[in-house]
């Protein structure tokens, strides 16, 4: 069936699909028509510097690419490509025998309330869901096709230039010209600083064919499992990127919506799964570029509507807020080191995860947990239980060597650090303090104390946790002698909120202190 009908035909296709559907969702590049258990997605007749949907043939190719690419993460959603045809009677049909008017992607319809942007507004997302999401993203990234030629510094430079060009192409008055120009210069300066890192990461396989558009509106839940959909299909260059740049869109989206706690949960769990701590130095730029993309995409939608209602005013305000956020993400924030110690079951991990969003640059401090590093050292997943000999002196020594090697890497990248371990041995506490001194940053040591019975209850209630501690281990820890303890003591028998409040008070002078000389 030849694809010969252009822009006028799309108007007819839209009217036809409207008649089939009960609801329509419009974006700046698509119309999505919802009907029954199906959704039909039509590419809009548009042309931007970064995509061209201005012909029926281009839209056909894009529809086919969309199905192929998105079946990597959402095969249950992407059913195929269908033609909108004009029959001899003049009526339109799906997959008829007549001339092709346009093409649509057919998808299985899912509950819109499971979209993560809806859930974050409703307050139904929590750390557990975000860790599940991080697992899904990590598994996808590890299986994605590796690219060793493109996708490093050059590709990110092209995206930065494309952002600048797109901002310049928008109608006057949408953004402050000086603000846009300053952001473009700041991005270029940051890019020059991390370019060697980006190319080194490409060389070791961290550039892959990713999702490319991984924000909250492109994630849903099916049968309780996070599903990534609507990946970029119109240009592989925009999706053949550093895996952390892919993740950065989600982190930025959560940060912009005021949920740094959820962004921190995603980042830390993802980094526990993947070898990407070296990329933290580029994360501020990655997130800033993503915020800029949201700024000009939102503004383009406003410009395409060309009306003057209050919804347009809100969208324009949101677009401008994204640009403000992009500039803020490039602002340096001095790192700090917080070490959280205490016997098993005292609440260290809960406190460490709670403190991380409060520290350093978005989306907060990197939590390094000795239990996780021990499992990595032994070549098993964090939740796999280790035998007793994995807790001998030699393995423990190697675990702490690895922990502090990673700590130095995180601090060198400019990210704040939270260390989570028992820290019962004075030598290990000294290593934590030395890591901060070596980096020239402030340090705070916290020691949690809780009754043995309560700690036993806590460890026995754990599920899918990296710690192997149980009641027997807690009994053995009763013989520990931590020696002289100059870390701040926090009673941890009360609820987690009271422990967090005490820790935040102790953090106040630390967060306001100037960075020490290295």
Describe this structure in words.
The chain is of the alpha/beta class and 518 residues long. The protein folds into three domains: 7-109, Phosphorylase Kinase, domain 1; 116-329, Alpha-Beta Complex (Aminoglycoside 3'-phosphotransferase, Chain: A, domain 2), CATH 3.90.1200; 337-512, Rossmann fold. It is 49% helix and 16% strand. It has 18 helices and 17 strands. It has helices at 7-20, 56-70, 116-122, 127-143, 153-169, 177-203, 236-239, 243-256, 260-273, 283-305, 310-329, 348-355, 370-377, 393-412, 426-439, 452-460, 471-477, 496-512, and strands spanning 23-26, 30-35, 38-43, 47-48, 51-52, 78-86, 92-94, 99-108, 207-209, 219-222, 225-228, 240-242, 337-342, 366-369, 417-420, 443-449, 488-491. The strands form five sheets. Strands 1-2-3-8-6-7 form a six-stranded antiparallel beta sheet, sandwiched between helices. Strand 10 and strand 11 form a beta hairpin. Helix 5 packs parallel to helix 10, helix 8 crosses helix 10 and helix 14 (393-412) runs parallel beside helix 15. It is elongated and about 90 Å long. Mean pLDDT is 92; it is low at 1-5 and 513-518.
């Amino acid at each position: 069936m030849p694809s010969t009908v252009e822009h006028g035909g799309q108007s007819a296709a839209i009217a036809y699909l409207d008649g089939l559907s009960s609801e329509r969702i419009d974006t700046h590049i698509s119309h999505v028509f919802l009907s029954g258990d199906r959704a039909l997605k039509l590419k809009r007749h548009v042309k931007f510097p970064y995509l061209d949907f201005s012909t029926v043939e281009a839209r056909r190719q894009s529809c086919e690419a969309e199905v192929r690419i998105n079946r990597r993460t959402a095969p249950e959603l992407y059913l195929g490509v269908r033609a909108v045809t004009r029959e001899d009677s003049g009526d339109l049909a799906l997959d008829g025998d007549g001339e092709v008017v346009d093409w649509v992607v057919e998808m299985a319809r899912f509950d819109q309330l499971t979209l993560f942007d809806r859930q974050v507004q409703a307050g139904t997302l929590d750390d557990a869901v975000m860790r599940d999401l991080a697992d899904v993203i990590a598994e996808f990234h590890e299986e994605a096709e590796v690219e060793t030629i493109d996708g490093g510094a050059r590709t990110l430079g092209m995206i930065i230039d494309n952002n600048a060009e797109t901002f310049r192409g928008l109608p006057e008055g949408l953004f402050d010209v000086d603000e846009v120009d300053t952001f473009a210069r700041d991005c270029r300066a940051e890019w020059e600083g991390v370019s060697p890192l980006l190319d080194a990461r490409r060389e070791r396989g961290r550039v892959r064919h990713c999702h490319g558009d991984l924000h909250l509106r492109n994630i849903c839940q099916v049968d309780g499992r996070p599903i990534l959909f609507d990946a970029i299909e119109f240009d592989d260059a925009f999706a053949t990127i550093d895996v952390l740049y892919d993740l950065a869109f989600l982190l930025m989206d959560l940060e912009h919506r005021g949920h740094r706690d959820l962004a921190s949960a995603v980042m830390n769990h993802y980094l526990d799964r993947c070898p990407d701590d070296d990329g933290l130095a580029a994360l501020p730029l990655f997130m800033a570029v993503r915020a800029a993309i949201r700024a000009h995409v939102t503004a383009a939608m406003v410009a395409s509507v060309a009306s003057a209602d209050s919804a347009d005013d809100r969208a324009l305000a949101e677009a401008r807020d994204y640009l403000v956020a992009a500039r803020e993400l490039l602002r340096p924030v001095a790192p700090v080191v917080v070490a959280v110690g205490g016997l098993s079951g005292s609440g260290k991990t809960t406190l460490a995860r709670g403190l991380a969003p409060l520290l350093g640059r978005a989306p907060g401090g990197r939590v390094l947990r000795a239990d996780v590093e021990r499992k990595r050292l032994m070549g098993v997943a964090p939740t796999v239980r280790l035998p007793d000999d994995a807790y001998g002196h030699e393995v423990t020594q190697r675990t702490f060597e690895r922990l502090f090697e990673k700590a130095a890497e995180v601090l060198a990248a400019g990210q704040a650090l939270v260390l989570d371990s028992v820290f019962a041995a004075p030598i290990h506490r000294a290593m934590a303090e030395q890591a901060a001194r070596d980096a020239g940053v402030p340090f705070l040591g916290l020691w949690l104390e809780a009754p043995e019975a309560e700690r036993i209850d806590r460890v026995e209630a754990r599920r899918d946790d990296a710690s192997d501690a149980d009641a027997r281990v807690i009994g053995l820890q009763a013989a520990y002698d931590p020696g002289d303890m100059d870390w701040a003591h926090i009673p941890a028998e009360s609820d987690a909120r009271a422990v967090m409040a005490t820790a935040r008070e102790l953090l106040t002078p630390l967060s306001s202190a100037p960075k020490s000389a290295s």
